[in-house]
């Protein structure tokens, strides 16, 4: 991250470039110690969350910004008086001091180069970080696989997926749709969650409760149905014994027709089955992707029935396929499931499995930490390196972009004040007094507007 917040300083306010008559007649002490200092401050309170895990990038950026800044001023023939490094609360910064009289004698174009040095370095930092993020998969290609399947880096003990997924597992698919990276994971979770909320807005009668499965069913053999526990709808929900889930029959030819046949006393019925066994069966229904179902029609064979899960409003049924390429069993077989799987259905035979999550999809999606990179060798600790590099680059990009924008604003004590002063001074068709008035109005207005904007952003973040 590049430093920002450079401001001209002396023993008091430096002389303005605006040629006011009062300033033309003002005499000042030409003591050799008079210097102009360039202050570089790394950030503001809104950036604290980005800083804590990444102290080294902030310190390393000092070694970049100081030589870059001094090279610009040295090219203008200005001698560096001193360089100092300081710590503003928790943000490191740097002070580069130059002779004040020499700076004041420079042409306006040279002054703009000096005043814009901090902004320029922040812009360069943004460009470097952006290019590094784009080419990071190519840079890490010899050591990591990118974009095959998102790998689990960690999940808390309170995560609904705890006990089903472990660090090192790769998520292959959600509801039969292949997942390649964390972005696709969150995109699918959001889509599933939106569909769940749309279904929960339907009328709360029996038929709507039974059809919340999104027409995603499984071809269940008649022999398995005969052994299943049969229940009836009570208070708009089905209650199955422990470790069993409710499934209802439906007709593919009529989306509103439920064909379960267990509606004694006017009540709808369902079959209680073991979900982990059902998900291994062939899929039916038109709610699945075309590549998932093995038939062109949603119908099953004659000795099978198409059953879909019966869900209550607000509860999601998500089928998750995963692989564990770094397990001892998989390593002994010499397999790499994440790289060799041709489709979600083959994950079971490639060091993985499938399970069903029933609950809140939104909380489930945010409860697991994923990365798009997988080590090419069985060294799981190395999986954290790409994720850490991405966070450092993203944080540095955002902070540098913010500082470049802030320092370009016409605000007191920032580079924007000096830049505005030079620009106004070049408006030669106005008198000196009018230029001074325009400068003060723009500076005051820019400061007030920036304070209001930053305050509003801060309130939206913390409230």
Structural summary, described in words:
The protein is of the alpha+beta class and 463 residues long. The protein folds into two domains: 21-132 and 390-462, no CATH class; 147-381, no CATH class. It has 16 helices and 15 strands. The chain has helices at 21-24, 48-51, 55-75, 100-104, 108-115, 117-139, 182-200, 206-210, 222-227, 275-278, 328-333, 337-340, 361-366, 384-407, 415-425, 432-462; strands at residues 35-41, 80-88, 91-99, 144-155, 170-174, 177-178, 217-221, 229-232, 245-249, 269-273, 283-284, 304-309, 316-323, 352-359, 368-375. The strands form four sheets. It has a six-stranded antiparallel sheet. Helix 5 (108-115) runs antiparallel to helix 15 (415-425), helix 6 packs antiparallel against helix 14 and helix 15 packs antiparallel against helix 16. Mean pLDDT is 73; it is low at 1-15, 19-64 and 336-349.
Write the layout of secondary structure elements.
Blueprint lengths: L20 H4 L10 E7 L6 H4 L3 H21 L4 E9 L2 E9 H5 L3 H8 L1 H23 L4 E12 L14 E5 L2 E2 L3 H19 L5 H5 L6 E5 H6 L1 E4 L12 E5 L19 E5 L1 H4 L4 E2 L19 E6 L6 E8 L4 H6 L3 H4 L11 E8 L1 H6 L1 E8 L8 H24 L7 H11 L6 H31 L1
Antiparallel strand pairs: 1-3, 2-3, 4-15, 5-6, 5-13, 7-11, 7-12, 8-10, 9-10, 9-12, 13-14
Helix pairs in contact: 5-15, 6-14, 15-16
Labels describing this entry:
single chain, 463 residues, alpha+beta, 2 domains, 6-stranded antiparallel β-sheet, 4-stranded antiparallel β-sheet, 15 strands, elongated, disordered N terminus, Endopeptidase S2P, MBTPS2, membrane, transmembrane, Peptidase_M50
């Amino acid at each position: 991250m590049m430093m920002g917040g450079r401001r001209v300083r002396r023993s008091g306010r430096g002389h303005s470039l605006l040629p006011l008559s009062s300033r033309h007649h003002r005499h000042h002490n030409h003591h050799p110690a008079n210097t102009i200092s360039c202050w570089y401050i790394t950030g503001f309170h809104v950036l604290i969350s980005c800083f804590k895990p990444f102290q080294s990038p902030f310190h390393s950026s000092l070694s970049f910004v100081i030589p870059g800044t001094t090279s610009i001023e040295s090219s203008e023939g200005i001698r560096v008086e001193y360089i100092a490094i300081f710590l503003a609360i928790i943000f490191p910064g740097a002070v580069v001091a130059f002779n004040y009289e020499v700076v004041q004698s420079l042409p306006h174009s040279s002054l703009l180069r000096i005043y814009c040095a901090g902004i320029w370095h922040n812009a360069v930092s943004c460009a470097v970080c952006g290019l590094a993020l784009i080419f990071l998969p190519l840079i890490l290609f010899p050591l990591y696989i990118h974009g095959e399947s998102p790998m689990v880096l960690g999940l808390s003990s309170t995560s609904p997926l705890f006990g089903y997924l472990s660090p090192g597992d790769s998520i292959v698919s959600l509801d039969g749709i292949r997942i390649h990276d964390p972005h696709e994971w969150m995109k699918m979770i959001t889509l599933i969650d939106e569909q769940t909320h749309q279904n929960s807005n339907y009328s709360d009668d029996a038929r709507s409760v039974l059809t919340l499965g999104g027409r995603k069913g499984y071809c269940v053999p008649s022999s398995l149905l005969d052994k299943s526990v049969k229940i009836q709808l009570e208070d708009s929900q089905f209650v199955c014994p422990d470790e069993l889930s409710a499934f209802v029959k439906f007709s593919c030819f009529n989306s509103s027709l439920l064909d379960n046949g267990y509606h004694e006393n006017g009540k709808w019925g369902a079959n209680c089955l073991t979900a982990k066994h059902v998900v291994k069966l062939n899929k039916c229904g038109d709610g699945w992707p075309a590549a998932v179902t093995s038939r062109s029609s949603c119908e099953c064979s004659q000795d099978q029935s198409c059953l879909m899960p019966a869900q209550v409003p607000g509860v999601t049924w998500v089928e998750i396929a995963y692989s564990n390429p770094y397990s001892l069993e998989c390593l002994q077989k010499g397999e790499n499931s994440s790289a060799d799987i041709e489709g979600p259905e083959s994950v079971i035979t490639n060091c993985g499995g499938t399970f069903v999550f029933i609950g809140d999809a939104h909380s489930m999606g945010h409860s697991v930490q994923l990365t798009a990179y997988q080590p090419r060798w069985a060294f799981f600790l190395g999986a954290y390196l790409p994720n850490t590099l991405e966070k450092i680059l993203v944080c540095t990009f955002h902070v540098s972009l913010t500082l470049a924008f802030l320092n370009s604003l016409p605000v007191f004590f920032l580079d924007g004040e000096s830049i505005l002063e030079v620009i106004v001074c070049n408006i030669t068709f106005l008198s000196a007094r009018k230029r001074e008035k325009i400068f003060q109005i723009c500076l005051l207005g820019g400061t007030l507007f920036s304070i209001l904007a930053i305050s509003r952003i801060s309130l939206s973040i913390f409230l």
